[in-house]
Amino acid sequence: MNFRHLLATLSLALGAAFTHPAIAADTAVAPDNAPVQVAAADTNLGTALAQGAGTSHKAATGDAVDNPYGLDALWKGGDFVARSVLVMMLIMSMGSWYIIVVKALEQARLRKHGRAAQQSFRSAASVQEGAGALHERSAYRFIAESGIEATRSHNDVDDHMDMNTWITTSLDHSLEQVNARMQGGLSFLATVGSTAPFVGLFGTVWGIYHALTAIGVAGQASIDKVAGPVGEALIMTAIGLAVAVPAVLGYNYLVRRNKTAMDELQVFGNVLYRTLLRTTRAKA
């Protein structure tokens, strides 16, 4: 029995000796191969992300470059009528802004000349001296010189018109000339403000007509085929409103400023009239 037990013990020892080195070898090799597998997986993931980012960038760039809608497409794809409407509204807009800026500067200069006229005539010894101190292009100087000329030329007038009526007529005529000069260009603003929206609407109707015709010929009525051309046509209405609104606002602003300036000129004309009449009677 003891001999059998000894043989069994030796058999178990030999089996353990041959089995444990294989397990140890597998255990030792596994940690060396694991980092290689993880690194390979990371490399594949980075390559996939880079390819995805490049594809997304190309798609975004292609959408930005190949956008078939907008003002550029409207001009390139429009016919003679559509381009004529765009050019007409551009001319209206440029003309409106030019008149608004020029008239605003003229009114500012007129108010400056008005303050100078008050100071000049307040310190002048005579009407002639006060008028001579004003700017050559001043409306106040023009009115003053008209009144002075009226007093000098009264002798050449029919005796039925007295000095009072003659001076009044001359000053009123001068004020009307100044008012007409100040009103110049305002009719253009009124015309643009009232017609530009309808010009833009005409361009919209024309563009929608051609867009629907092209869709009918192509035989496709999907949303991408309809929304683009119709949206481009609606831009015409937006442009018409963008042209009309500044023209209307500028017209109202200039008319209000002209009224204030003419009231100041009327006051100056009344003071000048009384001064000239008093001076003429004193000389007589």
TrEMBL record:
Record's keyword terms, sorted: Cell inner membrane, Cell membrane, Membrane, Protein transport, Signal, Transmembrane, Transmembrane helix, Transport
GO term, biological process aspect, one: protein import
Protein localization: Cell inner membrane; Membrane
Transmembrane region(s): 80-105, 186-209, 233-254
Every MotA/TolQ/ExbB proton channel domain range: 159-265
Pfam families linked: MotA_ExbB (PF01618)
GO annotation, cellular component aspect: plasma membrane
Domain of life of the organism encoding this protein: Bacteria
Protein topology in the membrane: Multi-pass membrane protein
Signal peptide: 1-24
Family: Belongs to the exbB/tolQ family.
Subunit comment: The accessory proteins ExbB and ExbD seem to form a complex with TonB.
Role, per record: Involved in the TonB-dependent energy-dependent transport of various receptor-bound substrates. Protects ExbD from proteolytic degradation and functionally stabilizes TonB.
Name of the protein: Biopolymer transport protein ExbB
